[in-house]
Amino acid sequence: MDFKEGDQEVVSVTGSTNHLVGVTPKRTRKWREFMKKRTKGEKILAAALVLLAVFALALLVSLIIVASRRPPSVCFSAECVRTASMLLENMDTRFSPCSDFYKFACGRWPEAHITEGAVNSWFADRTRYLSSKIEGVLSENATAADPLPVVNAKSLYASCMNTTRMDELGLEPMINVLDRAGLPSSLPDEETAVTFSISKTLAKIQRVLSMDLLIQLSMAVDPKTNKTVMVVSPTLGSSSLPELVSSEERVAVNSREALGLRLAYMTGVMTTLQPNASVTELGTAALKILVVDSQVRSDIQKTDTDDAPTLMTFAELQDIMDNANSTGTPKQRFDWMEFLTVLLEGLNKHVSVNDTVYVSSPDYFALLAQRLHRTRPETYQRYLWWFLVTSMVPHSTEELRSLKDDLYEALFRRSRQTRATKCVKYVKSFFNMAIGYKFASMDNLEKTTAKVKSMLRDITDSFERLVDSLQWMDTVTKRNAAKKARAINSFVGYPEWLLVPGQLEDLYKDMEVIDGQFLLSMVSLKGVEVKGILNTMGEPPINDTKGWVADPLDVNAFYGRGSNAIAIPAGILQSPFYFLGLESLNYGAIGSILGHELTHAFDVEGKDYDEKGRKESWWDEDMTRAYDVRAQCFVTQYDKFSFTSKDRLNGTLTLAENIADNGGLREAFHAYEHYVQRNGEEPKLPGLEHFTHQQLFFLAFANVWCEKSSLEEDINSLMDVHSPNKFRVIGTLRNLDVFSRTWSCPEGAPMNPAGKCVLW
Ligand SMILES: [Zn+2]
User: Fold this and answer.
1) Measured in angstroms, how far is the CA atom of residue 593 from the centroid of ligand 1?
2) So what's the pLDDT on residue 30?
3) pLDDT band at residue 545, thresholds of 50, 70 and 90?
4) Distance from the CA of 334 to the center of ligand 1, in angstroms?
5) Distances (CA, A) of 525 to 141, 156, 518
6) Could you tell me the distance, in angstroms and rounded to a whole number, from the CA of residue 453 to the centre of ligand 1?
7) SS3 of 684, please?
8) From ligand 1's centre to the CA of 478, what distance in Å?
9) In whole angstroms, how far apart are CA 709 and each of 93, 109, 164, 197?
10) Rounded Cα–Cα distance for residues 455 and 587 (Å)
11) Which of 371, 314, 369, 364 is nearest to 343 (CA)?
12) Which of 79, 365, 409, 442 is the S-S candidate for 581 at Cβ 3.0 to 4.6 Å?
């Protein structure tokens, strides 16, 4: 049939109708011979047929043209199919989207993701996945192409995995570190306390391990002199070496049980170090250490203030401590000059009592001086000694390691991690950029980075349009908000400098690993780190060209208030956050996360920083009042969410995050609408063709927060500054008019209540 030929020509050539009836000369000749033999009626009929055929062909061609200019109606790319099956697997359609959207989107997530005893959310799941990939990279032999830091990371991993070697070394590395910090190998007593000086020991602990005990050290720039000065703040004892659980993790047992578990663990560790000592005596010593810890905690709480650190001289700080209300001969005195001399030994830095220091909560230092004044030296020597010991326990012998494993299993009710998982975590805490380098050289994320940055620009534009439409805000504040939004710097994927030859080596300068010495290697790395920080003292601030606020392999996203920058690490650029096949899904997932980070610049804390990240408010009284009224709406609203009648969400604690969640989602939704205006409608998602793109946007958003958690974990999550995942979904969607319109939720439906809160 002739139409077939014509058909093919249209597709391959231009589609111009002139070419459609382009017949070959040969065929024309045959046609003439054929027509000569026909009657007049036949000829008329033939002419009509030809006309009809031409018309039909033209119609078909124009249909094909129209169709070829529109996207295929359903997206069958691998990403689309994978996302569709993921969403379908997690959804529980027995729930109505207007009654409980979290259940609707995530109801079957727990049964689809069974991992015994592990924290289960998309974030944890993707972190585990990345961790196993890192494990693969670190366990490969080093190659000639590996930069030195990568070689070192692999070597540190190998020594971490070599537990036989660790057991052979026994307690020797731990005793070595204690000795360098000026502490005895076993529990300090009256005798060891004779030569104990708290100022000297704290300085040594800083130099050896970069560990903050009682006093936290950091650096800041004094704007008057433009020089880096020390900042001292109160702190609770915590390890500077990598730990099995993060300090944010919540204990899953009541405080009485926790105390019992801690005491048993401490006595166990001490008994291992001193098998001949009396267990009762060790138990009493352990209890006293915990008492000191709780005193420090209460002193911190008592003196906690929102005030910015006070700039004073070391002499003035010394006076505050010496003049603290105490009588009699002091049992101990903190001597700042002695502390500084030991701290800066060998660094070619000279500090005098007239040099300045930022002091946060000066009252805390007065309280500390009082406690030292009244307390016998060995009590504090034991306190410091214990924190060093317990921070080295996970990196010591099998016997000690299991004691800490047992403690964490009981405290956090979680199963034991494999050695490889632990080692990945430990090595990552030192060499995250070196590991990032290996991934960056394989990943080729350039195009993705550009796309995510462009999405962030869309969301920033959307934020500006939303700000512009706000009724309660005056024009000056609107202008300042837009200025700050536009000034936000963004870091996406991997740092740009990471693959530039020499840069990685420069970052890890002097960071060496000692083969087969896991603990001592980490301690040596800490020593280099602290030396680098101390060397900045008295110097003008250096422009940190490697400034990247995050680990590139973190499954997370960040906003830095002081830098006014957003970081979207490569680690989160994976499904179910990105690469979902359609932009409606990408905007719903990573888009709402980008919006969340952006809105942090304008949350209840972020709003008091300017576009350069300086703590300088650009809000006048009226505007502050108007902001606070709207912020209070969120507090009241989120205060009402609860898991049980007594376990309620704290709307004040979670306020900044809730503001970011609500603003972020709205900004991402409007940004997607604009995307469609520019790029046209997208194809449908297979198996979910009955959903509009707006609906898919909300499904992808909710899906990010799917998790499996027990009531106990839910209750624990109420201590976090983020609302529990379920309420991050429900809380935000209930405030969004456009959500209710998208899903046709009637007024007053659980997901469409009256009294919506809107800030950004
Ligand atoms: Zn946040």
Assistant:
1) 9
2) 45
3) low
4) 39
5) 22, 11, 11
6) 19
7) strand
8) 22
9) 20, 11, 37, 48
10) 8
11) 314
12) 79
Phi, psi dihedral angles at 490 (to 5 degrees): -130, 140
Quick check: 219 and 343 in contact, CB under 8 A?
no
User: Rounded to whole angstroms, what are the CA distances from 553 to 52, 130, 573?
Assistant: 65, 8, 10
In sequence order, the β-bridge partners of residue 650 are: none
**Residue 729 tokens, joined:** 């979904």
Q: 143 by DSSP, 3-state: which?
A: coil
**Which two tokens mark 682?**
């997208």
CA distance 38 to 718: 91
Among 206, 224, 227, 226, residue whose Cα is nearest residue 215: 206
Q: What is the average pLDDT across 367-371?
A: 95
- Cα(298)–Cα(462) distance, integer angstroms: 46
d(CA 717, ligand 1 centre) in Å:
15
- Domains of the chain with bracketed CATH: 2-69 (no CATH), 71-114+575-760 (3.40.390.10), 166-426 (1.10.1380.10)
- Cβ atoms of 90 and 106 closer than 8 Å: yes
Task: Calculate how far, in angstroms, residue 405's C-alpha sits from the geometric centre of ligand 1.
Answer: 31
Contacts of 168 (CB under 8 A, 6+ apart): none
Q: Which residues contact 569 (CB under 8 A, 6 or more apart)?
A: 493, 550, 551, 552, 553, 554, 555, 556, 557, 558
| Type of residue found at 689 | E
CB 112 within 8 A of CB 89: yes
β-partners of residue 559 are 566
| Region at 29 (left for phi over 0; alpha for psi -120 to 50; beta for the rest) | alpha
**Structure tokens that stand for 164 in this block:** 């036989």
Give every CB contact of residue 174 below 8 A, 6+ residues apart in sequence.
Answer: 389, 392, 396, 519
The DSSP secondary structure of 493-514, one letter per residue, reads ES-GGGGSTTHHHHHTTT----
Residue environment code for 247-281, b if the CB has 16+ CB neighbours within 10 A, otherwise e: eeeebbeeeeeeeebbbbbbbbbbbbbeeeeeeee
Model confidence pLDDT, tens digit, residues 152-174:
999 999 999 999 999 999 999 99
Q: What is the largest CA-CA distance in the chain?
A: 135
Q: How does strand 227-235 pair with strand 356-359?
A: parallel
pLDDT for 551 equals: 87
How far apart, in whole angstroms, are the C-alpha atoms of residue 517 and residue 614? Answer: 43
The DSSP secondary-structure symbol of 74 reads B
Cα angle, residue 518 at apex, residues 517 and 519 outer, rounded to 5°? 100
Going by their DSSP bridges, the two strands 558-560 and 707-708 should be labelled as unpaired
H/E/C letters for each residue in 608-630? Answer: HCCCCCCCCCCCCHHHHHHHHHH
Beta strands in 447-503 (DSSP E): 489-493
DSSP 357: E
Residues 210, 529 contacting (CB under 8 angstroms): yes
Please name the amino acid found at residue 89.
E
| CA–centroid distance, residue 644 to ligand 1 (Å) | 25
CA angle 353, 356, 360 (to 5 degrees): 115
Question: What does the block give as tokens for 362?
Answer: 């000066």
Amino acid, res. 356: T
Sequence length of the chain is: 760
User: What CA–CA distance (Å, rounded) separates 164 from 516?
Assistant: 10
Q: Which amino acid is at 668?
A: A
Kindly tell me the number of DSSP H helices and DSSP E strands found in the chain: 32, 9
**Among 116-130, 635-649, 676-690, the least confident range:** 116-130
- Pairing state between β 489-493 and 565-569: parallel
The token pair at 391 is: 């921070």
**688 CA distance to ligand 1 centroid (A)?**
31
285 Cα–ligand 1 center, Å: 41
Alpha-carbon gap, residue 19 to 723, rounded angstroms? 65
Who has greater pLDDT, 724 or 60?
724
Distance in Å, CA 658 to ligand 1 centroid: 8
